[in-house]
Design goal:
It contains 9 helices and 11 strands. It has 265 residues and is an alpha/beta fold. The chain has 2 domains: 148 residues, Rossmann fold, CATH 3.40.50; 107 residues, Dihydrodipicolinate Reductase, domain 2 (2-Layer Sandwich), CATH 3.30.360.10. The model has no long low-confidence stretch (mean pLDDT 96).
């Protein structure tokens, strides 16, 4: 399977290129960078710290989508909207790990999925997606007698908060209780907040250092507390999950899928 990477010179992009090259049954179809960037025209293998692969980095995503069987995207919400349209145009499988999409951008992704298979997830890690399922089950079992808070920490350069993974955990907890997260979330607490409303799902955000991603979901009841935690020590887990999603999508019908679908959860 020929797999391409948009934003191939970034930390995540380089990791994806290395993992694709090392995965049996996969080849690196190519990669993109911004026009005028220092990596455009260079060999993608050398950019990723490998031997030359004979494929140059390009600055036009349309070229990549036309060449690849699947494209993996961890870039930006703005870019995701355009990339989804290109995937639909070429009926190219599209794996989207970018978070922070607004309603319009998400609608564009959903529209593109009527023409090609798209796997979208706030986190591509197998472990985190197992955590989503566990959180939903625990929230369903415990009900509103237990308060739920989600704590997440990432490196100082992360620009969105709460993280897409934290929001995904919140949505899993809300689904377990049969409601929508937007109806019960509390993203920030400051000052005199008063007593906590029953059924509220709270978030706390930490930023600092080079933390890849730590997430803990607290279920706090009277006399006992349950904590479910996932800690990422490297980006390789996201790359492996994304490649697994690309391979899974190879023979699927158009549609918007999640990592739960990929993992059979």
């Amino acid at each position: 399977m020929k797999i391409g990477v948009v934003g191939c010179a970034g930390r995540m992009g380089q990791m994806l290129v290395r993992e694709i090259a090392a995965t049996p049954g996969c080849t690196v179809a190519g990669g993109t960078e911004r026009p005028g960037g220092p990596f455009v025209g260079r060999d993608i293998g050398e950019v990723a710290g490998l031997e030359a692969l004979g494929v140059a980095v390009v600055d036009d995503p349309a070229v990549l989508f036309a060449e690849a069987d699947a494209v993996i995207d961890f870039t930006s919400p703005e870019a995701a909207e355009r990339h989804a349209a290109l995937a639909a145009q070429g009926e190219t499988a599209y794996v989207l790990g970018t978070t922070g999409l607004n309603a319009g951008q998400q609608a564009a992704v959903a529209a593109a999925a009527t023409h090609t298979p798209i796997v979208q997830a706030p986190n591509m890690s197998v472990g985190v997606n197992l955590l989503f399922v566990l959180v939903e089950q625990v929230a369903h079992t415990l009900g509103e007698d237990f308060d739920i808070d989600i704590l997440e920490m990432h490196h100082r350069r992360k620009v969105d908060a709460p993280s897409g993974t934290a929001l995904g955990l919140g949505r899993a907890a809300a689904a377990g209780r049969g409601t929508a997260l937007e109806n019960v979330w509390q993203k920030v607490r400051d000052g005199i907040t008063g007593a906590r409303p029953r059924g509220e799902i709270g978030f706390a955000t930490l930023r600092g250092g080079d933390v890849i991603g730590d997430h803990t979901v607290f279920f706090a009841g009277d006399g006992e507390r349950i904590e479910l935690t996932h800690k990422a020590s490297g980006r390789q887990i996201y790359a492996k999950g994304a490649i697994r999603a690309a391979l899974w999508a190879a023979d699927k019908q158009p549609g918007l899928y999640s990592m739960r679908d990929v993992l059979g959860l």
